[in-house]
Amino acid sequence: MTDRELDAAGVGDPALREAYRRCRVLNARHGRTYFLATRLLPVERRPAVHALYGFARWADDIVDALGTGADTARRDAELSALESELDKGLRDGDSGEPVVRALADTARRYGIDHAHFTDFMAAMRDDLVVTDYADYAELRRYMHGSAAVIGLQMLPVLGTVVPRPAAEPHAAALGVAFQLTNFLRDVGEDLDRGRVYLPADLLAAHGVDRAMLRWSRDTGRRDRRVTSALREFETLTRGVYREAAPGLAMLEPVSRPCIRTAFVLYGGILDAVARDGYAVLHRRAVVPRRRRAVVAADGLARVVAARLSARGGDGPPDVRPLDPYPAVSEGVA
């Protein structure tokens, strides 16, 4: 987090500034695509986004503590401690835990509904015990807390040009679309954690089950039935992007380049999966660096246009050159 961003956001307390910096590190380390897009937001809104995503990443890391020796009981205890700290932080507006302190400050500044955080933590707790989903309806219920509420948390920060309730279904859908994209890209990694997020009935319709996925992952061999199921899941995911798309124009103009860039880059992950022959059980599909740079440059041009429009064209906007691949070298205190 740069001093410029914190100054613009009106964050003056040294401990709170350090809390926001920690959130930025978590976001940059774990969410490269969205971290890049966030840099297209007005500087004063970036700390809030880092607080929201930094907290989400921290909770998710507790749940996904694979290979750390943390059993379910220990992760459950850590999640319970985090829930307790979150409840206290949201109630008091402060916390001794830096990430919660930044989150509580953001929730207060933007009037974010605390129920969104409660729903998110409930979904994180589900991940401790639920390992698969019978159908898409069941998966969507889980994703309300794990993904849709992230879009709803973000909406007050981004701002809208329509009454907020009109934009909320699209914001929720975008959060779901992003998570479905991650589910497709990370099928193999999630399987190693003991989870299958692809609905069981979708897999079964193609003659696939968990055992076949495990076989493919372990042997490195392909099966056309698995490919067919993954292709259908991609099609389903693209449909959710279509649900979300009308919401882009409902955002404040200065926020649109950020969300549009994330929209395009996450959609690019689907393209990469298809281009790689749906080999997600064997390797992670990635958007080429050149493509990421082109999308980032387009987003920057849109930022310039939006800010010039907001100022009535009176002088150059306050936009600095954007490095599409910022180094993340800060430690987490």
UniProtKB/TrEMBL annotation:
GO biological process: carotenoid biosynthetic process
Region span, Disordered: 313-333
Pathway: Carotenoid biosynthesis; phytoene biosynthesis
Cofactor(s) in the UniProt record: ATP
Superkingdom of the source species: Bacteria
One MF term in the entry's GO annotations: squalene synthase [NAD(P)H] activity
InterPro entries: Isoprenoid_synthase_dom_sf, Squ/phyt_synthse, Squalene/phytoene_synthase_CS, Trans_IPPS_bact-type, Trans_IPPS_HH
Name by which UniProt lists this protein: Phytoene synthase
The organism of origin for this protein: Streptomyces toyocaensis
